[in-house]
Amino acid sequence: MKTSLWILAGGLLLTGCATSTIESRKQERYSSYTELPSEQKAAIDTGKIKVGMSMDAVYIAWGKPGEILTSESSKGTFVTWLYRRSYLHAYRYWTPHHYYYGMGYYGTPYLAYDYYPQSYVSAEVIFEGSAVKEWRNLPAPGY
Q1: Rg for the chain, CA atoms, rounded
Q2: Which of 18, 44, 66, 129 is least surrounded by CB atoms within 10 angstroms?
Q3: Whole-structure pTM value
Q4: Helix (H, G, I), strand (E, B) or coil at 2
Q5: Closest Cα partner for 66 from 47, 46, 86?
Q6: Where are the chain's structural domains?
Q7: Where are the strands (E) in the chain, listed by range?
Q8: Who contacts 80 (Cβ-Cβ below 8 Å, separation ≥6)?
Q9: Which residues, listed in sequence order, are joined to residue 95 by a DSSP beta bridge?
Q10: pLDDT < 50 stretches in the chain
């Protein structure tokens, strides 16, 4: 009985670690993918999106967005998908370095670094109705 539980737990861990790829998303939304024009399929297969693509096509090409926003203007309702990435931001600081020499302890300052992950919006896709109206990639923040 214990062996079966360990095998089940291991299987759940392994399936939870699976990553989403273009191929897996094409299988997930197979009917939507097969109905697309060949030009859009070619773009999706290389991970690109185009103005006029459906939400399903963008999902297959880029995956699930990190955040979905809805807005409304005099021109109508818009849906914006935000995609996020992260980078390691370096924090520099001076800290003492202590060492023992001869009869005592001495200290000299040195420059140390710590790295912290920072999230940023790397791309946004704006849909009007259910088709891409515009999209843009955004650069990583400079430091």
Answers
A1: 24
A2: 18
A3: 0.72
A4: helix
A5: 86
A6: 21-137
A7: 67-73, 76-101, 104-128, 131-137
A8: 68, 69, 70, 71, 124, 125, 126, 127
A9: 110
A10: 1-6, 9, 12-16
